[in-house]
Amino acid sequence: MNLKTLIDETANRADETLDGCTNPSEARSILLELLAAEHPELQQADLRKIAEQVTVILTNEGFFESGPGSGGWGSSDDDDESDGLAEDE
Where are the domains of the chain? Predict the structure, then answer.
């Protein structure tokens, strides 16, 4: 099993699997439980590595700052649109 693929897939599902999670430590614990249930064939060291890498990715993306589904990205897009309207007028 390719760990990089599992890291990417797990990070992509973060909004649904970590709903309400507010810090990286809590996320790691949740991810370890989830991964152990979904992939019992993996060694504990691999599970920890995946959970840690997913947490790093999410931290770098600001997941724990804005929270899942907060619309932080949409806010900047809205600002861009209003700027464009002001220029057209």
Answer: 3-88
The pTM assigned to this predicted structure is 0.71
DSSP label of 40: T
How high is the pLDDT of residue 87?
43
Extended beta strands in 1-89, E state: none
pLDDT at 65: 82
pLDDT value at 18 more than 80: yes
Q: Report the alpha-carbon distance of residue 51 to residue 31 in Å, rounded.
A: 6
Cα–Cα distance for residue pair 72/84, rounded to 1 Å: 19
**18/68 Cα distance (integer angstroms):** 8
